[in-house]
Amino acid sequence: MRKSLVHVIAVGLLYLFVSTPLWADSGSSINRGAQLKGNFTQGGLLFGNTEPGSTVLIDEQNVRVSDSGNFLIGFGRDAKLNWQLVIEHPDGSAYTSTIEISPRSYQIQRIDGIPPSKVTPSEEDYERIAKDSALIRKARKIDDPRLDFLDEFVWPVHGIITGVYGSQRILNGEPRRPHYGIDIHAPTGTPVRAPASGVVTVAHPDMFFSGATMIIDHGHGLSSAFLHLDEIRVEVGDYVKKNQVIGTVGSSGRSTGPHLDWRINLFSARLDPQFLVDEMPAVE
């Protein structure tokens, strides 16, 4: 399992057992309940496994379960701290438990004296932003049964981390939308690689905020977004493999310099990408 970073109480491989342990003494047959591993915190992603054919509900919402019993549960930046998990097995038995996650604190930056024109978009810009947002929402509703997310994720680019998940700016006293990704500084033209295999669902050359933008769906509603690209080297519908070059680092859209803004979503839940990878390799 990947290393967790800061503000995480649950570190390494964490397991939640519902009722009785998942694995029977034989080691291969499934007993009652479900096994979860991942980061039990805001912004975290849990990888679950239960008896094939079971139904999984999180707060009464159905979760896709694969033929092999795999499922995902994600918690957004400001997610509540207690969740009800219900597992219903094919034999009709049902088991309920509470998932408790830990809160996090985030970097807050206050900047005053900025000209209003630099903070608030025009009406014409808002129309463009609305179209961009609709395209992104549509892509993030895809619920594909593929299990590409089971392969270990890698960094899409190596560089200096200049922005972290959950941080927020308060401009002229007005809180702005939190940052939901991780910013990685690298020179323009640096290859960007797929962190995991998946299908390209968005390849837009110029969105208002994020410039050249791409989304790759990894299955079960888990997707990666890549913002401010210089080039996009794949097309919508392409199946890409982990480590395949999909584009290059740029500074398109509203960006102050070349970098990659990498984001992870489980449907509408915005997750912390750093929980899926090891520490960033050292760079010069």
Low-confidence stretches: 1-31
| CATH C-level of the largest domain | Mainly Beta
> Helices and strands, in N-to-C order?
EEEEEEEEHEEEEEEEEEEEE
**Total domain units:** 2
Q: Rg to the nearest angstrom? A: 20 Å
CATH superfamily label of the largest domain: Glucose Permease (Domain IIA)
- Quaternary structure state of the chains depicted: single chain
- The CATH topology of the largest domain is given as Glucose Permease (Domain IIA)
- How much beta, percentage-wise? 35-45%
Main beta sheet = 10 strands, antiparallel
- Count of alpha/pi helices: 1
Mean pLDDT: 87
Helical/strand content category: mainly beta
The helical percent reads under 10%
Tell me about this structure.
This protein is mainly β. The chain folds into two domains: about 1-105, Immunoglobulin-like; about 110-275, Glucose Permease (Domain IIA). The protein has one helix at about 125-140; strands at about 35-40, 45-50, 55-60, 60-65, 70-75, 80-90, 95-100, 110, 160-165, 170, 175, 180-185, 190-195, 200-205, 210-215, 220-230, 240, 245-250, 260-265, 270. The longest helix has 18 residues, at about 125-140. About 35% of the residues are buried.
Could you give a quick summary of the protein structure above?
With 284 residues, the protein is mostly beta strands. Helix content is 6%, strand content 37%.
Please tag this protein with its features.
4-stranded antiparallel sheet, disordered N terminus, 1 helix, Glucose Permease (Domain IIA), 6% helix, Immunoglobulin-like, 284 residues, 2 domains, 10-stranded antiparallel sheet, mainly beta
